[in-house]
Amino acid sequence: MSRRASLQSPRARIVAAALAALLAAALAVLILDPGQPGPVATPVEEADYFSPGELEAGRDYRGELRLLGLLALVVELAALGLLVAGRPRRLRAALERLQARPLLGAAAAGAAISLMLALVALPVGIWIHELAVDVGISVQSLGGWLFDRARSAGIAALYAAVGALLLIGLQRRLRRSWWLAASGVVVAFAVVSQFLAPVVLAPIFNDFEPLPDGPDRRDVLSLADRAEVEIGEVYRVDASSRRTSLNAYVGGFGSTRRVVIYDNLLDSAERPALRSVVAHELAHVKQRDIGRGLLFVAIVAPLGMLFVREAGAAMAARTGTGPGQIAALPAYALALTIATFTLGLAGNQLSRAVEERADRFALELTGDPAGLTELQLDLARRNVSDPDPPGWSRLLFGTHPSTVERLGLARAYGADG
What we know:
Distance between the termini: 67 Å
Order of helices and strands: HHHHHHHEHEEEHHHHHHH
Largest sheet: 4 strands, mixed
Strand content: under 5%
Oligomer: single chain
Strand order of the largest sheet: 1-2-4-3
Helix content: over 70%
Radius of gyration: 23 Å
Number of domains: 1
Low-confidence stretches: none
Shape: globular
Structural class: mainly alpha
């Protein structure tokens, strides 16, 4: 076979697209890294902050969660692999019959595949929920959890229906160049969902109310004023109806931007720790981190979708289907899952850098390393965390610095001050 012919083989195109997508992700991380001004984090030992019992509980719980997370990924990939192979035969036959009405059929097929994946993932999800109940993180009944899961599955099925319809429509109309338009759809979806999630999706699961006037609200507004940040509204969310864990976050942008604080954080955290977490969230607004995340998607989406085109077409061809055919949807769904997970590893790396920069901003704004230390200890204990997880776990699942890294940063700022 000539060199030119080998480069035009499906396998060569898949490898080339995969390498290009990975390179784009690496460049995106390099370009979007926020930088880390200030002192280098001091190495610390977890045993200096946690008792042997706390460390054992965190390792046991988080270790089991890691294995279940890997199991969930394997189950999803295996289920999609069976669909790509034409199993079960009745489902494959049903997908082929839907080809008579391509666009509506694609929407129905996308929703069906999404619901099937939700169903096969349910046993692992129940296992994870029961573990959270056992360690005291979740206070939700199994029935309530299943109701939330059903609503999540319905939303995901709606997204999948629209995505499958657009995919088939673009493939039928644009042939080989559909991936370019599809990458635009991915970016548009990321922007719209980020904008609407706080006002459309989040209220489906929780109740939000503006943080009432009082010391908490005054602290938030004072910190925002010192940081020169326009935060929109500050909300209190009834997280305690489901979990005992502590958290806060920034959601939306423009007119939907808001700082959301868990009610159990407001009710239990001491004032320095609360100021630390609010300052951290203000950092995300100040540094436009939501926009940074959207830029990451915009950079990696085109070559990621090119990989989906090549890998999806190759897998579909093995079963006699191809672009524009509804029976090929499982192949493209599998390729998209692989691309999303792999590129997400780079996204996690960027997220860890962004979160560290937010910690540094909080330390600079509050001038209170002890407050960040108190917060991180409280978070780790209430969330039954592993303060120093293994490297492979940080690579696969870590979106934030580890607890020991954050404690070391606080110690470095304390020594520097």
